[in-house]
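Notes from the 1:1 (GR / supervisor)

We went over the backlog. Supervisor wanted to see one worked example end to end before approving the batch request, so GR pasted a single chain during the call. The sequence is below; no edits were made to it. Supervisor asked that the structure be written out right there so they could see what the output format looks like.
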Amino acid sequence: MTRMDVEERELQEIHEVHEEERPSAMPFPGGREFEERPAKTGSTAGAVLGAIALILTLALTAAGLWFFREVRRQDRRIAQVNQQVERLNRRVGGAEQQSQTLAQQAAQAAASAKAAAQQRDEAKQAEENSAAQTKSALQAAATAQDQAKQAEQEAEEYRKQREAELQQLQKALGQIAETHRTAVGLAMTLGEKSIRFDTDKSDIKPQYHDILNRIAGVLMAQKQYSIYVYGYTDDVGTTDYNLKLSARRAEAVRAALVQAGIKSALITTKGFGKSDPRVKGDTAAARSANRRVEIGIVDSKILTEAVDQK
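Structure output shown during the call:
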């Protein structure tokens, strides 16, 4: 049974109730026509009510369908809006992440720019310092060059002066004993023509003291010189014994020079034994020539410069 049938039945029941409660018809002229009119009227009213109920039902059904469709449409719209909102949220999240990334990149770029600026400033400062140091170095080099040139001139003047002194000294000593030039001064050989040593002897005979006194007199007048006394022997005897003998001969000459007036601190001695003979051979003449003492007169300043250069 449909809803329309239920509503029509309810309307009939209501109509029947009203018919039962209606009072009996009163006598009315044309009595049959009067009695049949209510029956027709009730039938027409039922039809009208049924039509109205049908219309209402159709209207309600149509309204329900429209409302259902509208709800579905609104649901779809809400779903679309939710999707759009979700997409927008994702975009906003991506935009925020991108914004953070850009902010980090900007901060890194700023830090890099600051570091680059600092490096540029440091490089500029280093360049300025380097330029100042270069200028200072050039000035120092120029000053050093001038000083070196001046020192060279002074050294040349000194060499000329000392050369003249050495020539005079060589001439003076050459009148006493055999004297020759060396790289740092002069060398005198006190051999058999000036001082003779007997075999296995280191003492100086009295007749030779005058020669040593004359040598001391010439050397005491000189300044800035050092004196080296070297003793030698012939080839007779062992190497060790001859080294000691040659050292005693050098010490004997030193003692005579000190006694003549030369400061002992200026004299250094050493014995070389039978090494470096003047005359090779084992003859008496050769051995007599090799028993000797040599005196080296060295310019102290030239010697010091040679040591510094090494």
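Supervisor's comment: Residues 24-28 have pLDDT under 50 and may be disordered.
Batch request approved.
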